[in-house]
Structures are given as structure tokens and as C-alpha cells.
Amino acid sequence: MPEFRQFSEMRVTFDDRYAPVIITLFKGRADLDTARWTTEVQRQATLDAMANGHKIVNISDATHAERPPPQVRRYWADTLKKAGPKALDGTLSSYVVIANPLMRGVMTAIGWLAEEVRMVRSVPTLSEAIRRGLEDLDAAGVPRPEGLSPETYVPPSAPDTGADALWSRPKG
Asked: I need a surface site. Which of 103, 145, 154, 158 has the fewest CB within 10 A?
């Protein structure tokens, strides 16, 4: 079930409708609360898949994200370092969609801090990330999720329950 979160400067959509392909979409500027929440949600999705004998394809769409501050970049790098082999064993492949050259630089900088990040492949479009993720499933002999297409993917819509309730607020 997709989740929607509004943070101080960022909206996040966590789309698990096509598991084992998990798509997280970012809009705005991440803070540490954003980084912690997305890390935990993605970690739990990986553990759930592993409990069922599966691996995930993790896609993060940063097309509409602003450059995160240094402490957020450091947090994500440290988190990947600490994840260990078990979490990495639950991931078939990881893609980050980065259209902006400055954001590609952020990814490179995080890679300098954490070797694990180098396994995350950056691509310029969400369509390409989905296409490559589906190819990874094919190569691993994992059935493709029904209804997921690189050409027709549409992010889920937040529930229409009123302006203030469109996005859940993080607990904290």
C-alpha cells in the first residue's frame, strides 16, 4: 500500500504496488527526518521481501528533489555502510533517477563516503530505471509485477480527504 509523507521541505511517495519493484519519489529538499523515514520504510520493504524469499528492485526518483544538505548526505552514506550484507542480499538492484548534473555530483560524493553507494546506478529518467529494473528481474528469473510498464507508470495519488490530510505527517 503506497505511503505519502510531508516533511518540512519535502514530499515523499513510497510506492510498493508493484513489489518486488519499489519506487520512492521525492519532491523538495530532504532533511534528517525525511532521510530517517525513507531509510526505515525501504529497510522494512527489503526485510518483508526477504522473509518471503524475494529480493527487491529499489528505485528512488530524485528528479524533483533539491540537493540535500551535508548532514543528510552523510546520514545516507553512513546508513548504507551500516546496512551490512543482509540488507544488500535483499536487494536485486538499486537505481536513482537523477536528471540534474548537480545531483549526479551528490551521488558521486556519497559514493566516495560509502562504497556500497557505488552499487546504486544513476539513470536520467524514471522510465529507464523501471525498464532496467524489469530487465534485472528477467535476468534473475523473477516474474515481472503485473501492470508495471516503463511507458505507462503513474505514481499513486494521495487520498483525496481534504487539503490538510492529503499527506500524512511523520510521527515524532
From this structure: 154
What is the spatial distance between Cα 170 and Cα 125, in angstroms, rounded to a whole number?
28
Q: What is the C-alpha to C-alpha distance for residues 32 and 164, in angstroms, rounded to an integer?
A: 23
Give the amino acid at 52. Answer: N
d(CA 120, CA 17): 22
- Please write the tens of the pLDDT for every residue from 71-109: 998 888 778 777 655 556 788 998 989 887 776 676 666
pTM for this model (two decimals): 0.83
Q: How far is CA 16 from CA 48, 164, 167, in A?
A: 11, 24, 17
Residue type, 103: M
User: Exposure of 39 by Cβ count < 10 A (0-12 exposed, 13-18 middle, 19+ buried)?
Assistant: middle
Beta bridge partners of 66: none
DSSP string, 8-53: SSEEEEEE-TTTTEEEEEEEE---HHHHHHHHHHHHHHHHHHHHTT
CATH code reported for the domain at 3-144: 3.30.750.24
